[in-house]
Structures are given as structure tokens and as C-alpha cells.
């Protein structure tokens, strides 16, 4: 059977911006005979995420993810529907997911590597398993729970960078659910700012591409910043940290502004920012959602409940077709998405 897939054609270089030319669409033959324990699944949705940028380098700089190899089929979070199965607990029609789903229209996978999904958790909107009710939602929720030190009634002001993206748009809302009094988002366009304040309940939103971020942030957060959900790092974070209060807390979620640079993770901070952290006793511990697997089931139940009751509002940017997967990734890295960037392979 002929299927389509995306392979890595070249690397952008540790300091380069990823481009669609780094990827190649191919047709390949899929063996139709399943071995014991295997399933054949039709790919439904693929997730494209910032951490994949590290997988484009020869060395990812971390031990929990491996570099992609040139000419190999690529992989990331994905969801599919089972068509044939030789696995004892998986049957045709089951919806399954994997953190290493091949960028391929149809694939043969080891059943034991798959997680069976319950579509009722997302009211049948299956792509939410890659976003609000998947690792993205868990990152926002568990990041805040574990590192945010949000205290209901304490009148805390929270700032979120990358606020209109997948994690950020959820983190702002969840920060409020957990008890923050005021939530301010920072993102890259006026249109995104307007969605944050008019649809997602943020009190204010600032476009970091316009001048005067520090002054505008000061007027949005007159008592300073108590909780900072940091998705971006770099100069934006230096500005936010300079306005943080004593004994306040940073959730070090990601540093996307540094991902096209050849620097270690987390990237070193300027001396002034380091000094501010020390003088004001600000915590800045690295958060990794994969380190909290024991809380994922609880987190998924909570996120599902917020989603189904309409409390948690979810934004997605969806592109169609395997041939557009690379474009979707490249676009997301430059801010082309509002909410979670999803590739729909087959609806
Ligand atoms: P997003 O949906 O937020 O997409 C990335 C966004 O980053 C873009 O939309 C863009 O929005 C913004 N961006 C790109 N370049 C820059 C820049 N130079 N400066 C500021 N903003 C920029 O992605 P995710 O929600 O999937 O990921 C957000 C962060 O969370 C990433 O840093 C990621 O690595 C991290 N993460 C961490 C996890 C963990 O376990 N710690 C798990 C999952 C994600 P804009 O228009 O605003 O510029």
C-alpha cells in the first residue's frame, strides 16, 4: 500500500531558522502484514511543537529527546484510528495516541507504544488530546500547580509570555482558576491581544513587537508581578523579571526566543537579571511536564472537566494535509498560530 510521509531533508544548523526546505514529502510502501502486537492506524492529527526545533540539530542538548536523522520519517505527538490490530487490548475503531507518532498518513505501530483514548473526555473533538486535554494543557496546569505558588485570595498578579500560544492561552486561564487576581498576557500581534482580553478572560494583553513594553507592563501591573509563566525567555523575560515582586515565582516552561540559537537550555541570563533574581529571592525552577507522569491522569480529568463545562476556552490553528506539516511547524515557530497548532491529516 502506498502512503505519504515527511522526512528530514537537511538541518537548519544550530543557529538557523527552520525552513520548509529542511523537510521532504515522500511516497513509500507500507507492509500490510502485521506481526503479533502490531496495529495499523490511519493518522488523524499531528502536533507540531517548539521542542521539535532541538530535534532538527545533530545533538538535541538533552537526554529525553533524540535528534531526528536525515532521511528518516519524522515523528511527534499524534493521534490515529486503528484499522487493523494484532494487539490483545486494541481493536479496530479505537482512537490511540503516541508521543512519537510518525509523520505518515497511515502507519504500522507497536500496540504497546500506544495510549488508548476516551473520546468522551473531549466531547469527540479529538485534536484536543494534542492540546488542552493533552501534554499542552498538562504543561499549563501542572506547571502552575508545581511551580507557580498561586495562593487563592492573595491578590497575585500573573504575567504569561507566549500568551496566545497553545500553553500560554491555557496557562492564563488556569492561573485565574487557581486564584490569581489579575492576569496579563504578552504576545506578538494586536489581533492575538484582542482575543486574549475579549475571549479568554485576560485582564490586559501587550504586543511585545511594539515599543515601550516595560512602561506598558508597569501600568498593567501597578503592584508588580507575583507569578510569571515564561514561555519565551530573552529580552521579554528580562523586562518581566525586572518588575517582579520579592519572593515571587517564575514557571520556567520554555524559552522559544532562544531556540534558533546555539545556546544551552536554559540559556544564560544577563547579569542584571541574575542579580534581580537573587536580590528579590525569586524562584526560577525548570519545569518539565514529562517529569510529572504520576499526575497526568489526574490532570487530564481536571482539564476535561474544565473543557466540557465551557470554563476553559480553547483556541486552535488547524492546517489540512500531510504535505503542509512542515509549513505548519515553521509558521508556528514564527508566531503564525493562535492557540494550539494542529495538522489534520484525515478528519
Ligand atoms: P506556542 O503555541 O506558544 O507557539 C510558539 C509561539 O511562540 C508562537 O506562536 C509565537 O507567538 C511565540 N514566539 C516565537 N518566537 C518568539 C520570540 N522570538 N519571542 C517571543 N515569542 C516568540 O507553542 P507551545 O505552547 O507548544 O510552547 C510554548 C512554550 O512552552 C515553548 O517554549 C515550549 O518549548 C514550552 N513547552 C514546555 C514544556 C515543558 O514541559 N516545560 C512542554 C510543552 C511546551 P507570538 O506571536 O506571540 O510571537
How would you portray this structure in words?
The protein is of the alpha/beta class and 347 residues long. Helix content is 25%, strand content 27%. The chain has nine helices and 15 strands. Strands 3, 4, 5, 6, 7, 14 and 15 form a seven-stranded mixed β-sheet that branches. The chain has a six-stranded parallel β-sheet with strand order 10-9-8-11-12-13, with helices on both faces. A two-stranded antiparallel sheet has the order 1-2.
Largest sheet: 7 strands, mixed
Gross morphology is: globular
Euclidean distance between termini CA atoms = 20 Å
Instruction: Specify the structural class.
Output: alpha/beta
Total DSSP helices: 9
Overall pLDDT metric: 97
Number of strands: 15
**How much strand?**
25-35%
Which radius of gyration do the C-alpha atoms yield? 20 Å
Q: Which small-molecule species are bound to the chains here?
A: NADPH dihydro-nicotinamide-adenine-dinucleotide phosphate
The helical percent reads 25-40%
Instruction: Write the element-wise H/E pattern from the N-terminal end onward.
Output: EEEHEEEEHEHEHEHEHEHEHEHE
SSE blueprint:
Layout: E1 2-8, E2 23-29, E3 38-47, H1 52-55, E4 75-85, E5 95-102, E6 106-110, E7 115-116, H2 135-147, E8 157-161, H3 166-178, E9 182-187, H4 190-198, E10 204-207, H5 213-220, E11 225-230, H6 234-242, E12 244-252, H7 271-279, E13 283-286, H8 296-308, E14 316-320, H9 325-333, E15 340-344
Parallel strand pairs: 8-9, 8-11, 9-10, 11-12, 12-13, 14-15
Antiparallel strand pairs: 1-2, 3-4, 3-6, 3-15, 4-5, 5-7
Helix pairs in contact: 2-3, 2-8
